[in-house]
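Data availability (excerpt). The following record was deposited with the supplementary files.
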Amino acid sequence: MATDEVDRSPSERVDVCVVGAGPAGALAAYSLAERGHDVVILEAGPRFSFEDRLRRMEYSLRPAHDGLEVWEMGGDRDAYASTGPLDYPLNDVRVKGVGGTTLHWLGYVPRYHEKDFEMDSRYGLGEDWPISYDDLRPYYAAVERELGVAGVEDNPFEPPRESPFPMDGFSPSHSDSLLVEACEELDITVHSIPQARNSERYDDRSPCVGYGTCIPVCPSGAKYSADVHVAKAEAEGARVIDRAPVQRLEHDASTERLEAVEYATPDGETHRQEARQVVLACGAIETPRVLLLSESDEYPDGLANSSGAVGRYLMDHPLVMAFGIASESTRQHHVGFSTSGTHQFYDHEEPTPGSFHVGFLNYAGPSPVEAALSSGDWGDSLVSDVSTEVTGHIGTEALVEQLPREENRVTLDTSQTDDHGNPVPEVHWSVGDHAIETAEAALEVQHDILETMGARVTWSTDPRRPASGSHPMGTTRMGADPETSVVDARLRTHDLENLTIASSSVFTTGGAMNPTLTIGALSLMAAEYIDEDL
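Predicted structure:
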């Protein structure tokens, strides 16, 4: 089998083997390598050249190409099944490669609120996390410095902070100012959105130069991606093996510790990487899949699954949007990210509706050619129509809280296999009544804002069929009780004493905030515990 010249043979037994080179794995690996530990990172996908990003951006703009092609997703390697009442677009959610999903993410990094850790105590919903917001506060501050977060301390609803943002925030757009006027009439407080995107040069990375293609690729490197910390881990002595999908985890004779991580390479070989500690950091879909694939006589239901919770309680953030045409020009250009929104509806007294936050989309609308082709008019009438349709676009979005539900889960689909003959992940996702009621409340707020500013609402999401916010969470959840959870408060599995899971899969509940900052904070916390063990 043809391959490249990269040495992908295993190292001698290392201190830590990290599975996954996305934000969780990269931050954990860097933190441990910086402390002097011998670290190997195994990544299923390839390394992508930074110099190639401009070509990938241009590729993404051409209508002949599928968005998945930008980061080379698809085919047998990435096969999956979606069997729930709503299609779950898994390959739109993830990227396999050094940098992981942060290669194509949007870059919003709010902190979770205090209530997100206390859903059962406050509302009798879901479960409480075994840790609190205060436990994560120092790690939130640390990960903001590591990623480089641009923000303004103008959000009266956010939880308490201990230090300023590392960079000044981005200025609001002109369309934001139009929406702010409407919000003032409705007594809605608007504030900035923190971004893992450089507003100035930071950490030897460029400031944002306005390509506007944040999803799916930032050619300048201003938007943070986890390959930054993979490189930092390598500079501290860590070794990265790319194109090395993990096949299974092997436990020792005691059944209480992992002994090795088995991985495949492009030459058709299979290797065993032995390690004293293992960090599983490959996202909320692949993490339970690896555990389920690692069944043995002693663990017939998969590793770390004595509770039966591996793969269960899959959550995402249902996404609902509302678009309209304003009566005046919004002077809109495709910015690529939102600059303002509101968390006013996040903390709430009653259990339902739940939390949601609204963002103002810097949406440019269709091109003049598209607008002209869709209009049935000619002459001056066409000019008037196109002018309005092109310059007046306005839009809002909201992420919605979804409760953990046992039936929402990741299992193995044995009817189809990946390129190494393993069953593919089967994803079952539905939203539930709590999320639907919350989505209806979010859409009501969005419609009120657009109509108050004089916009004509042209389309909005069906709250019973929301899009996925591309934030899978909860499939190896954290908890104090080994009978109902997979990992403990330090993210170590209840069943295996040297296996730590650093991923959104450990979230006990999902809140309605973008999860990456919390993923990073948890990863830094977990690395400290592993350092103590070593």
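Summary of structural features: Residues 225 and 430 are 30 Å apart (CA to CA).
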